[in-house]
Every structure is written in structure tokens, then in C-alpha cells.
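Q: C-alpha cells for this one, please.
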Amino acid sequence: MPARTAHNITDSIADAPANVEVTLGETGLSADSTMTAIADSIMKESPYDRWEEREIVFNPDPTRAVWLSALFPGLGQIYNRRYWKLPIIVGGYMGLVYATSWNNNMLDDYTRAYRDIMDNDPSTNSYMNFFPPTTQEGDLDRTWLTNVLQSRKNYYRRNRDLCIISMVGVYLLAMVDAYVDASLSHFDLTPELSMDVTPIIFQEARGEKPSFGLAWAITF
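A: Here is the predicted structure, written as C-alpha cells:
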């Protein structure tokens, strides 16, 4: 087998680009345009670009939203990303907690005072704490004071109970709102949803004069 000389190797290398150019020329494409097309296809097929262009849609789970809201009022709204509802629910709940505590303290004071005035024991007179220090117990009408203490005791008991019921209502309302909000996030509002309202004139079977009204059609 004859040895290849350096001159022959150099000629082969020099002829290589020409052969490639001829082959590409037969298909009607140049080397530059072919490489550009390949690079564009690689960039379009890049998984990273597909990940950037993918639209992520948040679909909350209604069951999870209810359990979070049951754990603490407002957590379900945070999970549903309805942050504007959080101050309303938490503020209302904390306000009712404060109102319950205040009415309960007033109920304890009036209950003690009513019990003291009913036991006829001179040493137990906590009801005098509701009057200025200069007030003499003998100057008070005990019948009138007894009625007032009983009325105030019933009043603050009723307010405390209403606050407790309202707290339970806000607690349940937060759970229902979290569930409904999460469920409606899956509701598909298509562009075809529309409603048309038009005036109409129709003839009643029992009357001679026509009647006027409105007709509406819902498209979905």
C-alpha cells in the first residue's frame, strides 16, 4: 500500500470545504443558512424555553381550603389567595372575642352585686362600687336598686351570648366562603357567556290589548 505524502494530505484537506459546499449547493441551501436553521430549531426545542412560556394556573383544593379555615379563621382565604378577605374575617372574629370578654366581665360584676343585695348581709355590699364614694347606702331605694341590678345582669348575659353565637357564625362563614371560593376557581367563564335583554310586545289570550315586557336570553 503506497504511503500518503504530506502533499496529498494537504490537498485532501483543502478539497474538503469545496465538496461540502457542492453537496449543500445541490440542495439549494448554503452552509450559513443551514447552520442558522439548525441553531433556531435547537433554541425552539429548548426545554428551558418551554418551561418559561408555560402558564401556571393555580387551582385550590376546596377540601384543603375548608380544613385550613377550620384550623383558624382566615387560613382558607390565604390558601385561596384572597388576601383582601383576611382583615375582614380576622378583624370581625377578634372584635367579637373582645366583646364577649367585656360583656362577661360586666355580667360577673352585676351578678355579684345582685347576689349581695339579695342575701341581706350588711358586710356584702359590692353593689356600692357602682356609685360615687360619697353615696350613703341608706339613701338608696333597695327595691329600685334590685330591679336595676337584675335588669343589667340579664342585659349583659344576653349580649355575651349573642357575641358567642356571632363568633360561631363568623367561624362557619369563613369555612363556607373558603369552600365556595375554591370551588368557583374551577368554574370556566368562557367568552361565549352573554345575556341579551330586549323589549317585546305579546298578546294575552284573555285580553284584547297587547302587553309589554322584557325578554332575555342567556348564551353559554
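A few notes: The beta strands are 194-203, 210-219. The radius of gyration is 42 Å.
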